[in-house]
Amino acid sequence: MSKELEAFLEYISVTKALSPKSVEAYKSDLTSIETKLEKPLIKLDSKSLLNSLSSYSNKRTLNRKLSSVNAFFNFCYKQQFNHEQTKLKLSKIPKLLPKFLSFDEIQNSLKLIDRTSWIGKRDYALILFLYATGTRISECLELGREDIDEEWLHVRHAKGEKERIVPIARVAIKAIDEYLNDFKYEKDFIWANYKGDKLSRISAYKITQKYLGVSPHVLRHSYATSLISGGADLRVVQELLGHSSLLTTQIYTHIQKQDLKETVEVCHPMRTYH
Predict the structure, then answer these.
(1) In the chain, what are the domain boundaries?
(2) DSSP letters spanning the chain
């Protein structure tokens, strides 16, 4: 390992106080390049680096390594180990549209649930709740009975410790009430397993997989998609989902574009013109 690389790893570990896992990731990315090319990283030009990294077909893996290289060279430039700053361009990754289910697909799956037992009523209520509120599964599983007040949900255990208030549909509240009326354990939390203990993420995943064939997070996407399709403002959806940045919420704008395209194809007089 070159002395410059050792200095960089010490800097991110001590001065930047990155986690041991992050430091190890940088070390792995950068030492592998030095080992492969048998040359100190600081003496490699952009062409050599790109040729070395071109073997990575996975663009996300490639970008992670490019980011590591850029961080190293930025450090070297600031420490005046290098007089010119090297910055490699990251590879463009096509945006993946979020997977979602339609309201009809969710309704049809809910009809398959046997609600004669409290477990069945719980599964039914959980799926309805996730679709009705768009909560993250981590937020959902931490909810207490006091967090639902009439037709409002108080999300206290939100990502980034940001609490928010979300309206909840009456049909979801009714389903939760029916489940809890049959739930014989005295607990403060809402979602429980068959033993009466708090439901785990794995168990919640198995429930949505069993009836819908998707993860709980897809119901969050489905919630957002339904709102956007219904004409909701993007900033309102941002607030409801608890996104800190509007950029995160903008992944759903593809729905608006598709709706606009379909409207033009159906309504514009040139639709039949050839």
Answers:
(1) 3-78, 103-262
(2) --HHHHHHHHIIIIIS---HHHHHHHHHHHHHHHHHHTS-GGG--HHHHHHHHTT---HHHHHHHHHHHHHHHHHHHHTTS-SS---PPPPP-PPPPPP---HHHHHHHHTTS-TTSHHHHHHHHHHHHHHHH---HHHHHT-BGGGEETTEEEE-S-GGG--EEEE--HHHHHHHHHHHHH--S--SBS-B-TTSSBPPHHHHHHHHHHHHSS-HHHHHHHHHHHHHHTT--HHHHHHHHT-SSHHHHGGGHHHHHHHHHHHHHHHSGGGG--
pLDDT digits (tens, 9 = 90+) for 132-158: 999 999 999 999 989 999 899 999 876
Q: What is the pLDDT of residues 111-137, one digit of tens each?
A: 999 999 999 999 999 999 999 999 999
User: What pTM, to 2 d.p., does this model score?
Assistant: 0.62
103-262: what fold?
Answer: hpI Integrase; Chain A (1.10.443)
Active-site annotation, residues: 136, 159, 217, 220, 243, 252
